[in-house]
Design brief:
CATH superfamily of the largest domain: alpha-galactosidase from lactobacil brevis
Strand content: 25-35%
Bound molecules: alpha-D-galactopyranose
CATH topology of the largest domain: Beta-galactosidase, Chain A, domain 5
CATH class of the largest domain: Mainly Beta
Distance between the termini: 49 Å
Number of helices: 16
């Protein structure tokens, strides 16, 4: 609900409020953003004028309440007394934007520039600030779990105006905070870093032209001492896929100024008279229930207001992807053999990754071309997709439309379509970016991708992008607008196509891309132990239904780490499950295990994909409709391990639950030469007998089952003892390095107490 009372604006979501007021000088004060309060509480948040601020600039001599440098503001300008960082820059000249008017709309104010935005706002407050020749609309859209903000700048003068910075939001928060950012690189996405916000500016910024895995646009601000389950935490994100910028800095008065928007580095827009510039939408979220509470809110917001409506709560298929198993080396026969094996395992969608078109037999050629490679795929995609359909699976296809290899027909005929500067072109993965700001390039992509989508039955698209350009410069924003136009034109008429975006893994994991496709490939690193970090850190800001999570081969290609198949499954369950490995090389026991994994996942798919996700001390849990699934993950084994406890969250204290572990089995080979101590004969661990036994036999591992109240389960259930070097016993858990365990917790049907 948005209320307006005597120059005070009260925006009240579910358990949070934002209070603003226009002061006597027309500045917009940020009175409060945090726990729910009443609009009538506003005066309690006023900054009282005191004895003055010494050398500070006042808007009115003698009135210390007119000192912009010390007030908590919701927007500010440079050069007029507020010397903290400004959210706007007009080619270095000062501005003096003051309150002009406001209006309240039902729902959201639609974007005019084609930027994606959150849908389903309850109401939007538009406050217009103005000065001669300039108008700035500040839009505040209210959602149950979040507030979004954006700006629209209008040149009302008769001269062109050069804009070099315009943030989507700015907020001054009282108190000290720590800023958590998510940084990284290829195969090392989402490394979490936390820094205290002091008097020097802390910046989270991307300058590659894209939201980037170097610095995800989403970040958190938490009060020192906030924990997973308690304390104030703010979450911020941007519905945008290009360069972004966010900063936080504490002032002498103890206000932390936070802002977020398009990255100003190399940004410049010339606005002709009468023209407007829209910023992307920033998302602001608050919880006083710690990081966990914040994530729950962000997840609900993304599920309900960001991802395309067709895919909200729509179950995602279990897929098989050809990339890690085949790379570029396949033909139709091989694909069909993989598809029929994948089908037997339970997969529902077969995805043909890179290598199906032009001269694309390696990553050095062919990008930009769309002619299907008929040598590899006689009969084309239509024939292949029909065969896959006939096997009972859906068919999906990889594209990388934004890039071009210099060795391609497209580049040979349109070299000027590639983005370059005046120097010798620099290649990234042997490719250049196409200039998506140009209409003819947009048309080429829309036409060619659409033609392929319509020539075969394609129900899934992996939209990849592997060139992270340095040549975008001032074009960066127009490129992103061009990309959104292309995505809009291809996928809005085909909402039923499941679009998974990807950029060398998670190099463009952002809310902008999620407005077009509901899931994103988190990382080319599918090592489950690495994924524990990547998926867990994504979970701070993004729901698990947005994670493409695949089981791949062990030892893993990126780390050479060997991990148990159960752990690879248990990690990928907490996302949109897929398999990406050479199925020809699976042992029968592995096939059986994968079959069981997929069957189990399908049974609990809605909970895994859309349940309430919670981070536990050593694992994760999801809960939905009375069922909780929790996994505990282990890194390295320690000798004589301490008792392990599983502390569940979010259960009903008074209900009774049945907890059981999902059966897991141990490979005999894990015991190596120890087997000779229990076998009647001295068996060589590298000999034929043990090697054969390892391929065929497994042993049950520590299954457990118990009933307890929600209260007890949340206090911490003691798990079965771990292997202690005293021999195998099926009533202990023999988890090796990188082992894991999954538990199913179900409400017990109500039964009357005996009288
Ligand atoms: C990128 C993607 C991979 C795969 C390859 C194909 O690296 O992240 O998943 O699609 O491209 O070339």
């Amino acid at each position: 609900m948005i209320e307006v009372q005597n120059g005070i604006f009260g925006l009240h979501g579910k358990d949070f409020s934002c209070l603003l007021r226009v002061n006597d000088y027309g500045l917009l004060e940020q009175l409060h953003f945090g726990p729910a309060v009443q609009t009538a509480d506003a005066p309690a948040f006023f900054c009282r004028s005191g004895l003055g601020w010494g050398e500070s600039v006042l808007l009115k001599e003698g009135d210390t309440a007119s000192c912009p440098d010390v007030l908590p503001l919701a927007f500010s300008v440079p050069g007029r007394g507020d010397y903290r960082e400004s959210p706007i820059e007009l080619a270095g000249s000062p501005a003096d934007l003051r309150y002009h008017s406001h209006r309240i709309l039902e729902g959201e104010l639609s974007m005019e520039s084609g930027l994606p935005q959150a849908h389903g706002a309850q109401q939007t407050l538009v406050i217009t600030l103005a000065q001669e020749g300039l108008e700035l609309e500040l839009c505040f859209s209210l959602f149950p779990d979040a507030l979004t903000r954006r700006c629209i700048l209008k040149n009302t003068s008769d001269r062109p105006l050069v804009l070099t910075k315009l943030m989507s939001m700015m907020v001054d928060l009282p108190g000290d905070y720590e800023m958590t950012t998510f940084d990284g690189g290829w195969i090392a996405e989402m490394r979490k870093h936390r820094l205290p916000v002091l008097d020097s500016r802390v910046v989270n910024e991307s300058t590659t032209g894209f939201s980037s895995h170097r610095h995800n646009p989403g970040f958190l601000l938490s009060a020192p001492g906030a924990t997973e389950d308690s304390g104030p935490v703010y979450g911020f994100n941007l519905v945008y896929s290009g360069n972004h910028y966010a900063s936080a800095q504490r002032s002498l008065q103890g206000l932390t100024r936070v802002m977020q928007g398009i990255g100003p580095s190399s940004f410049a827009k010339t606005l002709a008279p009468g023209r407007i510039f829209e910023t992307p939408e920033a998302v602001l979220c608050y919880s006083d229930r710690g990081f966990g509470g914040l994530s729950e809110r962000m997840h609900r917001f993304v599920q309900a207001h960001i991802i395309p409506p067709y895919w909200r709560e729509r179950p995602r298929p279990v897929l098989y992807n050809s990339w890690e198993g085949c790379m570029f080396d396949f033909n139709r026969r091989r694909l069909l053999s993989l598809a029929s094996q994948a089908k037997k395992l339970g997969c529902e969608l077969f995805v043909l990754d890179d290598g199906w078109f032009g001269a694309r037999n390696s990553d050095t050629a062919g990008l930009g071309d769309y002619n299907v490679n008929l040598k590899k795929l006689p009969g084309g995609l239509k024939k292949l997709s029909e065969k896959i359909k006939a096997l009972g699976m859906d068919f999906g296809l990889w594209f990388e439309p934004e890039s071009v290899n210099p060795d391609s027909d497209l580049y040979r005929s349109h070299p000027d379509w590639a983005l370059t500067d005046q120097f010798e072109p620099l290649l990234g993965r042997n490719q250049l970016l196409l200039d998506l700001s140009r209409e003819e390039v947009q048309d080429y992509l829309v036409e060619n991708v659409s033609k392929i989508l319509d020539q075969a039955e394609i129900s899934y698209v992996k939209w990849d992008m592997n060139r992270h350009s340095v040549a975008l410069g001032a074009k960066a924003h127009d490129y992103i607008l061009g990309l959104y136009r292309v995505l809009e034109r291809i996928f809005r008429p085909r909402p039923q196509i499941l679009l998974e975006s990807c950029s060398s893994g998670g190099n463009r994991f952002d809310l902008g891309m999620l407005c077009y496709g509901p899931q994103i490939w988190c990382s080319d690193n599918t090592d489950p132990i690495e994924r524990l970090t990547i998926q867990e850190n994504l979970s701070y800001l993004y729901p698990q239904s947005t994670f493409g999570a695949h089981v791949s081969a062990s030892p893993h290609a990126q780390t050479l780490r060997a991990t148990p198949l159960c752990t690879r499954g248990n990690v990928s369950f907490f996302g949109c499950l897929g398999y990406e490995l050479d199925l020809d090389h699976l042992l029968k026991i592995e096939r059986q295990e994968i079959q069981a994994q997929i069957e189990f996942y399908k049974l609990h798919r809605m909970a895994f994909q859309f349940g309430t996700f919670r981070r536990l001390k050593k694992g994760w849990q999801v809960s939905r409709e009375g069922i909780t699934l929790a996994a505990v993950f282990r890194r390295l084994v320690a000798a004589a391990p301490a008792w392990e406890r599983l502390e569940l969250k979010g259960l009903d204290r008074n209900k009774r639950y049945r907890l059981r572990s999902r059966p897991q089995r141990l490979r005999i080979g894990q015991f190596g030469s120890l087997v000779k101590h229990v076998a009647p004969v001295n068996l060589d661990p590298n000999g034929f007998v043990l090697r054969t036994a390892d391929r065929h036999f497994t042993l049950p591992d520590g299954a457990q089952e118990l009933c307890a109240s929600g209260s007890a389960l949340m206090a911490g259930t003691v798990l079965l003892p771990l292997f202690r070097g005293t021999g195998y016993d099926q009533n202990q858990r023999t988890l090796t390095d990188f082992g894991s365990e999954l538990f199913i917790i179900e409400e017990e049907p109500n039964h009357a107490e005996p009288g």
